[in-house]
């Protein structure tokens, strides 16, 4: 049932925070209605899109901070424009740890590109990583961010059951099928391009290219290499890891993302080193890395919902980023439509 149009900004109870434009674009694609008559505080420097998802009024927050990460001022300004936000959802893309142990299952699970990751805890990590060679771990610090919401705890307990995780995965798959009819970015890129390279194998120009930085012997690559596809650089499949196959098709033959719940690392830099990824994952027990969730987590009851676009290494793909953003948006919509009722967001 569509929601009645909100009268004022005080009628908006859910903030959807996106660190990148492609993430916001994906969320805009799942809105059931736009409410352009709602205006933010004139002193607010943030940009917003106000709309509805089912019966829920939401505001999409378009961030403009460094690397798309909200600073404390930007996060506080959301409160000035939308004073009755009761839930924040951070939607977008993340880099994943290929293998992790789910604490509520006590067994190792594999993550693939295009899977959906939902936060049980956010770990603040100031990595400072700008190149692939800074791997000593001296530039990060852990800070577990508390989640002050029984509402979130209850939902996560529900999703930790196999039945509800399976149902969520099925509904996300159906949502992606619908979105894919309207936008090709929402179509699964294909398992052949889901390649996990060994941690020591860098995404860089081969020797024949004559790039001094890529051939320096260090764990780093040039900017041009970073912007070039693996197929164009000649990244060797011989350096890829063999992983157990998993069922990836639903009953209708559509690709079905798997759903993962776990600790997520949040910071101010993109992780581009698989060696560093493995070190952080082992130390912090995280299953994914994201940007954009830290400050929102401290202001509101918050859930981070991310699609996996890469393995937190140097091998990244814009095509997978677009699809992963769509996966996160689809997961967000399914959670709101199927798992949240209006009374769940009533004021205390």
From TrEMBL:
<dbReference type="GO" id="GO:0009116">
    <property type="term" value="P:nucleoside metabolic process"/>
</dbReference>
<feature type="signal peptide">
    <location>
        <begin position="1"/>
        <end position="26"/>
    </location>
</feature>
<dbReference type="InterPro" id="IPR035994">
    <property type="entry name" value="Nucleoside_phosphorylase_sf"/>
</dbReference>
<protein>
    <submittedName>
        <fullName>Uncharacterized protein</fullName>
    </submittedName>
</protein>
<dbReference type="GO" id="GO:0003824">
    <property type="term" value="F:catalytic activity"/>
</dbReference>
<dbReference type="InterPro" id="IPR053137">
    <property type="entry name" value="NLR-like"/>
</dbReference>
<keyword id="KW-0732">Signal</keyword>
């Amino acid at each position: 049932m569509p929601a009645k149009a909100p009268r004022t900004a005080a009628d908006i109870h859910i903030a959807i925070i996106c660190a990148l434009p492609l993430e916001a674009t994906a969320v805009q694609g799942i809105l059931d209605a736009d409410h352009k008559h709602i205006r933010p505080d004139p002193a607010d420097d943030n940009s917003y899109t106000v709309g509805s998802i089912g019966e829920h009024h939401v505001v999409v927050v378009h961030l403009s901070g460094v690397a798309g990460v909200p600073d404390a001022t930007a996060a506080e300004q959301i409160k000035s424009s939308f004073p009755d936000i009761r839930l924040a959802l951070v939607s977008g893309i993340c880099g994943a740890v290929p293998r992790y142990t789910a604490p509520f299952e006590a067994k190792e699970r594999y993550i693939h590109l295009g899977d959906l990751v939902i936060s049980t805890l956010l770990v603040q990590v100031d990595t400072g990583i700008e190149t692939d060679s800074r791997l000593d771990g001296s530039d990060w610090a852990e800070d577990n961010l508390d989640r002050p919401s029984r509402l979130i705890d209850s939902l996560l307990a529900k999703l930790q059951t196999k039945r509800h995780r399976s149902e969520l995965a099925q509904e996300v798959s159906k949502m992606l099928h619908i979105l894919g009819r309207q936008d090709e970015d929402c179509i699964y890129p294909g398992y052949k391009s889901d390649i996990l390279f060994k941690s020591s194998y860098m995404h860089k120009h081969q020797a024949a290219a004559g790039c001094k930085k890529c051939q320096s012997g260090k764990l780093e690559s040039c900017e041009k290499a970073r912007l070039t596809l693996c197929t164009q650089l000649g990244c060797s499949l011989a350096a890829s890891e063999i992983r157990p196959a998993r069922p990836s098709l639903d009953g209708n033959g559509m690709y079905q993302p798997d759903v993962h719940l776990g600790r997520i690392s949040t910071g101010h830099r993109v992780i581009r080193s698989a060696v560093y990824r493995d070190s952080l994952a082992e130390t912090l027990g995280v299953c994914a890395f994201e940007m954009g969730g830290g400050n929102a987590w401290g202001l509101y009851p918050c859930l981070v919902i991310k699609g996996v676009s890469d393995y937190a290494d140097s091998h990244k793909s814009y095509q997978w980023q677009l699809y992963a953003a769509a996966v996160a948006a689809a997961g967000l919509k399914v959670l709101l439509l199927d798992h949240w009722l209006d009374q769940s967001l009533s004021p205390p």
